Amino acid sequence: MADEAPKTSGQMGMGLGVIIGLSISLGAGLLLLIGGLMYVKHERRAVRAGWNLVPVLVIADDVQAGTVITYDVISQRAVPEQFVTTSIARPDRANELVGKRIKVPLKAGDLLLWSEFDDFKSPTPGCDAITVLTEQLEGAKNQCAQERASAGQR
């Protein structure tokens, strides 16, 4: 041990430089890894958008037109949310279908649409196209009447 020459400041600086270089490289690699994982997670979420499954009501067995719906002939199925509209019956409204007569023949697995029932009414009152247009026309008519009345008062 006595034969070893003391380390010069250049040799110590080189060792410190190697340690700093390795630390920076490891830090950059770790940042790239975290960034890559975040990117993959974001892309996975974007690809799955609209493909989340939501429950809808389907007919469990083949039925003929005129069949009265009971809980025995309806079932649930998961469908991607991008294909589910307000015209499709959802499980939370199944009680509204029971006892109603179906207008058309259906095959097992067919989605239950509100319009397939004899006494069809929009599942969300006030949101069908005719009602909306009528309400818009009434609103415009009332606005015109108010403007005419205020113009006559001047």
Overview of this structure, please?
This protein has 154 residues and is mainly alpha-helical. It has helices at 9-48, 129-153, and strands spanning 53-59, 74-80. It has a two-stranded antiparallel sheet. The longest helix is centred in the first third of the chain and has 40 residues, at 9-48.
Features:
154 residues, mainly alpha, 2 helices, elongated
Sequence stretches where pLDDT stays below 50 over 5 or more residues: none
Residue-averaged pLDDT: 82
Question: Helix content range of the residues, please?
Answer: 40-55%
Shape: elongated
How many runs of DSSP E, i.e. beta strands? 2
Return the structural class: mainly alpha
Biggest sheet strand order reads 1-2
Radius of gyration: 35 Å
Q: Give the biggest sheet.
A: 2 strands, antiparallel
Tell me what portion of residues adopts beta-strand conformation. Answer: 5-15%
Head-to-tail CA distance between termini: 111 Å
Order of helices and strands: HEEH
